[in-house]
Hints:
mainly alpha; single chain; 2 strands; two-stranded antiparallel ribbon; elongated
Amino acid sequence: ARPVVVLAIGFVLCLGGNMAEGEREASTKGKTVRVWGKEQEPEKSRLASAEKRFGLTWAELHSYKDKMLFPVLPTCMGVDELPQDISLCETVFRGLDRCITQGTLNENPGQPYARMQICKPHWIRFNKCVKRRDELILRGVRKWERDYYSSLDDPSRTEYIEDIDTKMRYFLYAASHTMDAAKKSRLELNAQHCALRQASLLNPRSPIDEPSSAAGTASV
């Protein structure tokens, strides 16, 4: 297996425990506060104002761990079969993670959303890197999958297409039954990737570098 990918996956997984406290803290932002038995709205209003001012949401900024997850590969495809020159975005991930962690530890009660401004440049670089990484991984998947699919007999091809369709429907079902916005977005993206893979196999003459309009069929 490809060592650098395995190390990167392990790196992301081991962050789970360290970031749990930060996620709990993040989830309380914008919540309605009850004071003397009455619900107070200023916190929610301040968050909405900060999100509008900085051009991103609190949830988007803190969902970077979900974004760091790699696209789901076909069952028979090994990570070592991906192109070797794909950036896995570890450096920009660490930069964003460090910024958010420091912002959490040094939060000023008078400016609870300051990290949205301070960490936005890190978030932009990370978001751009991950988007490009996922595009290159998906391109590699579609290239590998076309070769693999062409080696199958007709019954196996039908079964393979149905398996991709089943996975896509599962991701859409799971997305429609989660209240977590970050997880919902990730599951919908997984479904979209399945739609692109399926369209690529059913239209083998279409260029692999061009996104397929069939991805629009993967919607909740």
